[in-house]
């Protein structure tokens, strides 16, 4: 089965050994510095809120005194071989939305929870149902260390919840959002692999099977009014930076969506 057909049917696809060790090392060096700064700035919240991810790794505050590194980071995030591959799979214009870094929680007792990404937004669930099949919002996971870090329910990118899935996701009728769900698939990845999955598929992280987690997610997709409002222009290249990014199409589309950038 080709990758486009697999995603259409299952809502996820793996590109094995897509990046070479040097490419992963280049990403890791920049991301480790950003992550260390973020941990220092968010030490209390990391523990008290049991955080499992950070976002907006391209924010300018992580590049003060080394602004040229930000342009380098933008180029590393979207090499042409990655954008070309996704465009060949999805046959549509794709824009860059944000970045996330996933890690294990400080609290070892925290349980992973089933969700669709937009369920934590103010968008009414009925609106999400109505637009579900009109949206293409993707996570492009690039693990920096080996992980069994994502569990998902295939095909839920093209259908809404069963009664059990809804009860578990929203903890209705005595259910908890960490309960096992039928049909789930645990994804195992090595550094260099790429996992592409729908942000609206039912999914959760996995902490217990991973002594450490460090996974970069690129949040990309087809523009849609429900998610465009969450796009932060400060996370995008500036007018000057965009001139020095060779493969800039996804950033250009994002910059055209938001009202202003510097």
UniProtKB/TrEMBL annotation:
Signal peptide: none
Keyword Disulfide bond attributed: no
Keyword Oxidoreductase listed: yes
Family annotation (InterPro entries): Phytyl_CoA_dOase-like
Keywords, sorted A to Z: Dioxygenase, Oxidoreductase
UniProt-listed SUPFAM superfamilies: Clavaminate synthase-like
GO molecular function: 2-oxoglutarate-dependent dioxygenase activity; iron ion binding
Entry-linked PANTHER family: ECTOINE DIOXYGENASE (PTHR20883:SF48), PHYTANOYL-COA DIOXYGENASE DOMAIN CONTAINING 1 (PTHR20883)
Protein name: Phytanoyl-CoA dioxygenase
């Amino acid at each position: 089965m080709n990758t486009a057909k697999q995603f259409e049917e299952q809502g996820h696809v793996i590109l094995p050994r897509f990046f070479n060790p040097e490419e992963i090392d280049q990403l890791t060096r920049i991301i480790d510095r950003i992550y260390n700064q973020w941990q220092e700035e968010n030490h209390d919240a990391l523990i008290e809120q049991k955080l499992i991810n950070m976002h907006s790794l391209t924010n300018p505050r992580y590049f003060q005194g080394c602004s040229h590194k930000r342009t380098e980071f933008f180029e590393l995030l979207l090499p042409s071989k990655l954008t070309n591959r996704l465009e060949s799979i999805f046959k549509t214009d794709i824009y860059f939305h944000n970045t996330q870094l996933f890690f294990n929680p400080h609290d070892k007792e925290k349980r992973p929870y089933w969700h669709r990404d937009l369920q934590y937004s103010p968008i009414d669930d009925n609106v999400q149902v109505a637009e579900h099949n009109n949206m293409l919002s993707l996570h492009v996971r690039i693990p920096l260390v080996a992980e069994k870090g994502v569990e998902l329910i295939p095909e839920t990118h093209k259908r809404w919840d069963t009664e059990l899935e809804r009860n578990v996701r929203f903890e209705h009728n005595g259910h908890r959002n960490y309960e096992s769900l039928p049909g789930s698939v645990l994804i195992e990845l090595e550094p260099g692999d790429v996992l592409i999955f729908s942000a609206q598929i039912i999914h959760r992280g996995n902490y217990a099977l991973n002594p450490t987690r460090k996974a970069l997610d690129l949040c990309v997709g087809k523009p849609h009014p429900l998610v465009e409002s969450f796009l932060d222009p400060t996370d995008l290249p500036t007018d000057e930076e965009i001139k020095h990014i060779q493969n800039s199409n996804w950033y250009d589309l994002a910059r055209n969506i938001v009202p202003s950038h510097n």
